[in-house]
Amino acid sequence: MTSQDKILRLFRADDLEPLYSYLYAGLLCYASDNLGSDDVFLAEDCVQNAIYRAWKRKSDFQSLYSLKSFLYVSIRNEIISIYRKRGSQSRYI
Q1: What's the whole-model pTM score?
Q2: What is the DSSP letter of 14?
Q3: Which of 11, 44, 80, 92 is the most buried (most CB within 10 A)?
Q4: Distance between CA 2 and CA 25 in Å, rounded?
């Protein structure tokens, strides 16, 4: 069993620590880079929300690669949503 298989198995068993150790820094950098340095808290929220959504669907993932892809796409979609909300708020004001 590879370390990636072990991380996925532990994630499915509700042990999130190995997943955080393996992916959190990269996910946070991705979110921060796309949101900008002024929105570090929003970046952290995006990562936490993505992990929570993945955890609710934990049995759907067949590999750590598919889980990782889901997390990055989920973060990207949330960032797009944030920008859309900002745009509509500025138009409204």
Answers
A1: 0.89
A2: T
A3: 11
A4: 21
Half-sphere exposure of 34 (CA within 13 A, CB side): 22
pLDDT per position as a tens digit, 43-72: 999 999 999 999 999 999 999 999 999 999
Confidence label for 36 from pLDDT (cuts 50, 70 and 90):
confident
DSSP 47-78: HHHHHHHHHHTGGG-SSHHHHHHHHHHHHHHH
Give CA–CA dist 5/20, Å, rounded.
Answer: 15
Q: Which CA distances in Å does 58 have to 44, 52, 71, 83?
A: 20, 10, 12, 28
Q: What percent of the chain has pLDDT over 90?
A: 81
Count of CA atoms in the C-beta half-sphere (13 A) of 9: 6
φ and ψ at residue 71, rounded to 5 degrees: -65, -45
Helix (H, G, I), strand (E, B) or coil at 1: coil
